[in-house]
């Protein structure tokens, strides 16, 4: 999610903060201690804001009145208990209700969406998919005052520098007159509006598409969707290209060819026997693709293109990027998954994931620094271990892998 600044913003904060946060550093101050320090911290933030170009009026009338929010500290420090399976993740996000609502909004905003597509090269179905996953099409923006959240996090040593910058950005948004502070409500980590922009992303990419003099990501669908397209274009969206597609792998496929770091031309995938999910040949396009297998060899497989990587700059999760792509496809009238993910996929606790990484490391397979988060490094290590054990090297942390490593995988 690393690490460019914009990827950090969306991967670490906007939607899946917990997925990119490493193990907690020791000796962090308790919320009650931070609450005691908060008034002095706000005074320091006022000085920084003035030095950073925020107006005296906003510093005195807005920043001086921010409130410490203990719940924000609790959420920021809370590590996810489980590593969610692709099956659960996908089914909760890509469902018929969301597909139907996306199609309704496609019809409702057709003129706007096609105008955005002409101007920015982002197809309508993708904007609708992001909108649907971010805020369920604007039905839930979060319920926390953004300035309180950001000030609270800026006064916590864990990520003070990052959130101080976001707080100053939010104050500049107020200075610009885009939104009054009382209406600046968002996620506990400061993401805002229909598309859950962080303040620094807002300042760089938000647009006044309806020409009312304000960049309003809360009350203006044209502003929100045009800003999302502007952001996607800015981080490399390829006009007219798909995100990827579900594919069918041949019997005996060499699963060690999977992984985002192993892209190859579509023609080579065809020579390896890969076909579309319906059995038809792959397109004859001059494009590179990587193979992603989110639920192991028993689940669906996907060839993903450059726009998949752009989606992952919005949120550094393969599960998220697949969900955006598949939701977009179905909003546009394409079918859903052909190969369903396994229904009995286990949930893995962070402690179990940490034990898996540690045991792999002990056996000479490098997953990276053990942190209880199963990412690409861990999957590559699992593939190497599986291959050495004569297992299908799909990189999936299933029960068979835990058993072969001598770790008991108990369902929570």
Task: Walk me through the structure.
- By secondary structure, this protein is of the alpha+beta class.
- Among the domains are: 5-80 and 141-234, Helicase, Ruva Protein, domain 3; 348-404, no CATH class.
- 49% of the residues lie in helices and 8% in strands.
- The protein has helices spanning 5-14, 17-20, 31-51, 56-61, 70-77, 86-93, 96-108, 110-120, 124-135, 146-154, 160-176, 199-205, 221-234, 266-271, 306-314, 318-331, 350-362, 376-388, 399-404, and strands at residues 82-83, 144-145, 185-186, 244-248, 259-265, 275-276, 288-292, 301-304, 348-349.
- The strands form 3 sheets. It has a 5-stranded antiparallel β-sheet with strand order 5-7-8-4-6. A two-stranded antiparallel sheet has the order 1-9. Strands 2-3 form a two-stranded antiparallel ribbon.
- Helix 6 (86-93) packs parallel to helix 16 (318-331) and helix 10 (146-154) packs antiparallel against helix 11.
- The longest helix has 21 residues, at 31-51.
- The chain is globular and about 70 Å long.
- The model is unreliable at 1-25 (pLDDT under 50).
